[in-house]
Structures are given as C-alpha cells and as structure tokens.
Specification:
Number of helices: 17
Mean pLDDT: 95
Strand order of the largest sheet: 5-6-7-8-15-12-11-10
Radius of gyration: 25 Å
Number of strands: 24
Low-confidence stretches: 616-621
C-alpha cells in the first residue's frame, strides 16, 4: 500500500484487547492501546550474539533498520535488517466476519521469518516481552499474578491482575483490568517473567532459528465474561459452549497456515472489488478500516442463543450499542455478514420494550461499554432529558437498518419480529420528519438544529424503508402507501430546501447554506427513485466548490467533516471519476494526518487535525474520535457496487 496509516493495527480483537503502533517505524515509539495509553510490547532479535530490537522502545538496545512496512485488511507487515540478517514480522488479527468462531477467538498472531542477506550462516533467536499494561487499566493499578503453563506442549506465560472484578466498571477511557493474558511460542520456546521499570513483563524466547524458518508467537486474552447484558454476564461466541482459552490457543496455532490463507483471500478480494468500485485510493482506505471496524465491537451470545454485536463508542462517551454508530457502520456488515447487523439491533429492541423506556421513538443507545443495561446518553441523575434525545435520527436509523438487512438477506422475518415497534417509529417520522423541530441528529457535536434538511431526508428514507418491509411481507398495498408518502415528502422537501444555485440548504429556513445530504444515499442503493436523479445530480455538482485540501466540510457552520458521511456523499456521484475525486482528499488526510491515532472519523478539512487551527494540545486532539466502528460506513460504495441492495419495486 502507498497509504501511510495514521496508526498501524497490530492486535485488534475487541475494545479492550487492542495494540497499535503510532509511528511509521515500529521501533520509534512504545506500542499503545487505542486510547493512546502505553500497551508496551517489545521484540528483539539476538543475531550472532548481538541483541537488536525490532519492536518498541528500549534505549539500551539498538534498533534494527526498518526497510519496509505494509498492511492489508487483516495483517500488518514490517521488514528489518541488521547483522547480515533480514527479519520479517507479520501481525495478524484474523477478524473474518463470515466465520464467527475465528473472528471472536481472542488470539492474535506474530509470525517472524529470517533470512541471510550476505550468504553467510547466522545464529538468530527472537524474544518478545509483553508488559502488565495489557491486563490492567494503568500500570501498577494492582499487583499482577504470573504463571507458566503448557498449551499443547508449548510453554505459555499467563498474567493477570491479582484483583479480579469481572465487568465491574463501565466507561470510555478505560482499559481491561480483569481476565488473563497468555503469551505462547513454539514447543522449543522458553517463557519467563521479569520486572523492569516497575512493571512485570511476560517473555517468550525462541530456540535458534533456521534460515527461512517461521517462528509463531500468539497473544491471547481470556476475559472470562465479556458483556453485562441487563444484569446477565454473557460470554463471547468462542467460549459460549465452554471452550477453554487453552483449547482456543491450541486451535489457533494449529490453524495458522489455513487461517492466514483465508485472511489473504479475504483481503485480496476486497481490494480488487474496491478498486473496481472506487479506485486504488478508496481500496487502500478500506484495507486500513477493516480491523478497526470489527475490533471496536464485541460479539456475545444471549440466553436465547442469538448473536449480540456490541459496539463501543470509542472516545465518544463510551456508549454501547449506539444506534447512530451502528447505522453508519452497517455497509461493511451487510456485505460480509448481515447477521451481525441484527446483533447490533437486538439490544435496542430489548431496551425499547422494557418498562424503563417510555418514549414513542427509538433509544439512542443501550448502555455504556461493557454494560448493556439501558440508555446512558442524555441522562441527568437517572432521568432521560428529551433535549438530548435524537428521535427522528434513531427512528429512521432503525427502520432503514431493518429494511437493509431484509433486502441483503432476502428475508423479512427479522423486521417482522419487531413490526409493532417499527410501526410506532414510522408514525413518529410521519408526524415529525417532514420538517423536524429543534432536535439533535447524529452530528450532535454541531448542536441542535431546527428544520434540518438532511435529517428530513433520514425521515423520508425511514418511511420508504417501511414500504420495503411491507412489500417484502407481501402486503403490497401497505408498502405502496409508505413509498408514495415518501415521494410526497420528497417533493415537498425539494421545494423548501432549494437554493437559487441548484444546491440544497442545511436547514429549510437558512438561505444560501449547504450540507452533505448523505442520508439520501439509500434511495440510490435501494433503487427506489424517491428523489429525482436531477436533484441528486444538481446537489452533488454543487459540492465541488466546497472541497478543502482534506475533504468537504459537513456543512457551512465549521470546516470539519466526517469520514463516513464523506464517502456516503461521494456515493451519490453517478460517475466513478467523480467519486474518486471526492474521496481522494480523505485518502490524503489519513496519509498525512499528524494525529497518529487509529482512524478518526471527525477532523478539520483545512488542517487535517482534530482542532480547527491544528493545535494538537487541544483537548479534542487528546481525546478525539478514534477507533470507532463507523469506519464500516466507508464500504458503502463497495456495497452499492455489489448490487445486493437493489430492491425490486
């Protein structure tokens, strides 16, 4: 890839088990958790008696020269040289969305291969050291316990907090402080523990490696229980039936070659498809987004044996199962496993049916990660504040998501299970969506806005989506009613939202304003023709004069944008060339951004920073949107290109 990642994924299993490199060279900084806190892993190569490092910071040990780095959807690769030896380190987190057993297995790989550069024979031993930070919120929080055990005849280092309060805390800026970390090499490796800089390290060292020999290290984490689901502690898919972490590690190690081939096939096909859909820069962005999109979720199994796919709203209040985070993320999952979209929606339906939810519109979220126990956003002393709710936004989101799942799977049964709530929510859209009042939308960082034109488009698409659901149920007359109503609202929308120059307003009462009209993209994907093509063409043509060096602003109020909405808006383009032109500044943002964090979705289009004037010390730069699942929305052009969303009216 030509794209330089703002931060490179190394281990990306879930919101807690997460390790990244925030510099171009793997030896230039300590590895970090997505929150930016150190999550130190150091790796060394002893070449002919001289010790070098190829990962992390250690002033006492010289770094190998990094000669290359690359990534694809599920692996990151670094190549180093020193002492006449070339060393290739490949980090793989096999988050294969079509295989939940592998995707949820909490085991990540590091494969090391060495070869001589000078034709001479060399002695090479590799060692990896993982700090206690991997199993604590912050280093030194509690003493850690250590144990050496065997997994399929391989020595394994086990490390965990001495205080095991499983699922005891919820919040945003938190790391895991329960469960146990496991570090495993091959059968000839030796493990140990050491104390350095007031930290405990789990260590594994290889025997002498032969030329071109593959040495495999696995990093695994057993969180025991993963999610507090309305008072019940739930396990993940991999261990729901009683499988032990030792068995999972054994299977992961024995499956490595097969799993790596699956990962490569998945990545290669995605890249080829994305190039055809949106060009090479678009394809590179998608490759970088995959591990983040999946790894900021946790997949668990409820008491009915159904999948729950819980997102964490990373550095955005830490909410769990947020509807307006699920909505932008679904293009990826509609492509690769629509069952996971159902898993996003189930917690919302459960909470909406509870006695705690007394509103006639959809909730915003279902908890604060890892607690899924009721809405947390917009609470004051336990009371939900209406002014903090997003009624039109979330009603539209839920109905559109349900229709999208029905179309993608050619099965309306999931929506049919929740038809009473969907009918309640579409009524809210009918009554309030044509000209929304003073409400928040998903772009809540911009504040309340009355008469929001893009929010009205959300309502229109929600109503149209209800028509899809009814038509798929065989209730053609009822379906036609909602489609016709959506078209009527769209006609009214055109008259009230029109600017004199052929563009369309931010708000119905705000002359000469603009905004991205990303919500109408579903009209194009479904093929409904709710909005005349001439309107979409005229609106998209107006965007060219709005584009800054790093993309088009979300609207005229501030020069910031959202990566997901930018690609949704680009997908309105009729020509591939126009799409590529619109997305190219986004590629440049990720390539040049000085904010070295996992892909952010909210940034300034002039500075490529999280703050308006590029001051990284600004609070929004320190705790900015990052590692959020909404990057799944970048796949919407690929979803359109696949053709699976076309609905036969």
């Amino acid at each position: 890839m030509i794209l330089r990642p703002p931060s490179t994924p190394l281990i990306t299993i879930d919101p807690y088990f997460s390790v990244w490199s925030s510099t171009d060279k793997l030896t230039d900084s300590a590895t970090v958790h997505w929150t930016g806190y150190d999550n130190t892993i150091n790796a060394y190569a002893n070449i002919d008696g001289t010790l070098y490092r190829f990962m992390g910071v250690d002033p006492e040990v010289p770094a190998m020269k990094q000669t290359k780095s690359d990534f694809d959807a599920l692996s990151s690769v670094y190549v180093f040289s020193a002492g006449g030896v070339e060393l290739t380190a490949t980090f793989t987190s096999p988050l294969l969305p079509g295989d939940l057993e592998i995707m949820t297995r909490p085991v990540s790989y590091l494969e090391v291969i060495t070869r001589a550069l000078d034709g001479k024979k060399h002695s090479v031993r590799v060692s990896v050291k993982v700090s206690e930070q991997i199993c604590l919120d912050i280093k030194g929080q509690y003493p850690v316990t250590t144990e050496m055990l065997y997994v399929n005849s391989c020595e394994t280092a086990k490390m965990g907090s001495s205080v095991q309060n499983v699922l005891a805390r919820d919040g945003d800026d938190l790391r895991i402080d329960w469960g146990y970390f496991y570090l495993t090499g091959d059968s000839e490796s030796r493990v140990s523990f050491e104390n350095k800089d007031e930290m405990t390290f789990a260590c594994v060292q290889s025997a002498e490696l032969k030329p071109h020999e593959s040495y495999l290290v696995t990093f695994a984490y057993d969180d025991i229980y993963s999610i507090n689901y309305f008072g019940k502690h739930l396990k993940s898919c991999w261990n729901n039936n009683g499988k032990t972490i030792e068995k999972a590690i054994e299977e992961a190690r024995s499956d490595y070659s097969y799993v790596l081939s699956l990962c490569k096939d998945f990545s290669d096909k995605m890249y080829t498809d994305a190039v055809r859909a949106g060009g090479e820069k678009y394809a590179e962005i998608l490759q970088l987004a995959v591990r983040q999109t999946i790894g900021a979720h946790k997949a668990v199994v409820d008491e009915n044996g159904e999948i729950l796919f819980i997102s964490k709203e990373c550095y955005s209040n830490g909410c769990a199962a947020t509807v307006d985070v699920s909505y932008p993320s679904i293009p990826f999952f509609l492509l690769y496993n629509p069952e996971l979209v159902k898993g996003m929606m189930r917690p919302i339906y459960k909470f909406a049916r509870s006695d705690a939810w007394k509103f006639d519109f959809a909730p915003h979220d279902a908890g604060r990660y890892p607690a899924v126990d009721g809405q947390r956003y917009g609470l004051k002393e336990g009371v939900l504040l209406f002014e903090k709710q997003m009624p039109v936004e979330e009603c539209g989101n839920m109905i559109i998501m349900d229709a999208a799942v029905a179309v993608a799977t050619n099965d309306v049964s999931f929506a049919d299970e929740h038809l009473d709530l969907l009918e309640q929510w579409v009524k809210y859209l009918i009554d309030n969506g044509e000209d929304p009042g003073h409400q928040l939308c998903t772009d809540d960082f911009a504040g309340h806005l009355a008469h929001n034109c893009n929010l009205s488009l959300k309502a229109i698409m929600g109503i149209a989506s209800m028509g899809i659901i009814y038509k798929m149920k065989g209730q053609v007359r009822e379906g036609r009613k909602y489609i016709t109503m959506a078209k009527s609202y769209a006609k009214s929308w055109i008259e009230r939202a029109s600017n004199k120059d052929g563009s369309y307003k931010l708000a119905f009462d705000a002359e000469d304003t603009f905004s991205m009209k990303y919500n109408i993209v579903w009209d194009k994907l479904f093929g409904l023709d709710i909005m005349p093509k001439s309107v979409l063409a005229s609106e998209f043509a107006s965007y060219k004069k709005r584009i800054h060096p790093y993309g088009m602003p979300l609207d005229n109020r501030k020069p910031y944008t959202k990566s997901d909405w930018l690609v949704w808006t680009a997908t309105l383009a009729e020509r591939k060339e126009d799409f590529e032109e619109f997305v190219s500044p986004l590629w440049l943002f990720f390539h040049l951004s000085p904010s070295r964090v996992p892909m952010t979705d909210w940034y300034y289009t002039i500075t490529a920073c999280h703050s308006e004037w590029g001051k990284l010390e600004h609070i929004s730069a320190r705790k900015s949107f990052r590692n959020r699942t909404v990057q799944g929305g970048l796949f919407i052009k690929l979803l359109e290109h696949s053709g699976i969303m076309k609905f036969d009216l």
